[in-house]
Amino acid sequence: MQAEIAVAEHPREQAINIMYAVQGHYGYLPDEGLLEAAELLDLTPLELEELATFYDFIYRRPVGKYVIHVCDGVVCWMFHENSVFEYLCQKLGVCAGEISADGLFTVLPTACIGFCDHAPAMLVNGRLYGPLTPLLIDEILEKLKTEYCDLVVCK
Ligand code: FES
């Protein structure tokens, strides 16, 4: 991390990369990780907290193995017969941001993910899925429960 910071014109340019690196280590960005990153970046903890909470892909609380970002954009809403978000939460027995009982899933809303031509859409650990139907969602969840899926880092 220090090598990346050293080549930056200003350390804050590397803030997202550093927070991702810390998140990659802990699985989320805990307070101690945020404090460590703020010190490295020569930012106050509050300045870094503002950045961390602005980005949907920085997690300030623990998350499941798979983070499902359900698109909350207007195009996806036009194609929702039933709410994908509510369907997933009901299916997994969670509210937004919670971890499912098996530790596998967290569901979060997010802004347009740029997959509007496949609306309604979602990202699972950075992988795009759509157009979603309840049947397709069930298939995706079953596959994720039984197969290892790589993490695609979103920035
Ligand atoms: S509005 Fe959902 S992908 Fe664009």
How would you concisely characterize the structure shown here?
This protein is of the alpha+beta class and 155 residues long. The chain is 43% helix and 12% strand.
Strand content: 5-15%
Q: In order across it, which strands form the biggest sheet?
A: 2-1-3-4
How does the helix and strand content classify structurally? alpha+beta
- The CATH architecture category of the largest domain equals 3-Layer(aba) Sandwich
The CATH topology annotation of the largest domain reads as Glutaredoxin
The chain-level mean pLDDT equals 90
Question: SSE order, as H and E?
Answer: HHHHEHHEEEH
Number of strands: 4
Domain module tally: 2
What is the C-level CATH assignment of the largest domain? Alpha Beta
The dominant shape is elongated
CATH homologous superfamily of the largest domain, by name? Glutaredoxin
Proportion of helical residues: 40-55%
Annotate the secondary structure layout.
Layout: H1 2-7, H2 15-26, H3 31-41, H4 45-54, E1 66-71, H5 74-78, H6 84-92, E2 105-110, E3 122-124, E4 127-129, H7 134-146
Parallel strand pairs: 1-2
Antiparallel strand pairs: 1-3, 3-4
Helix pairs in contact: 2-3, 3-4
Bound molecules: FE2/S2 (inorganic) cluster.
Structural features:
single chain, 155 residues, alpha+beta, Glutaredoxin, four-stranded mixed β-sheet, 4 strands, elongated, binds FE2/S2 (inorganic) cluster
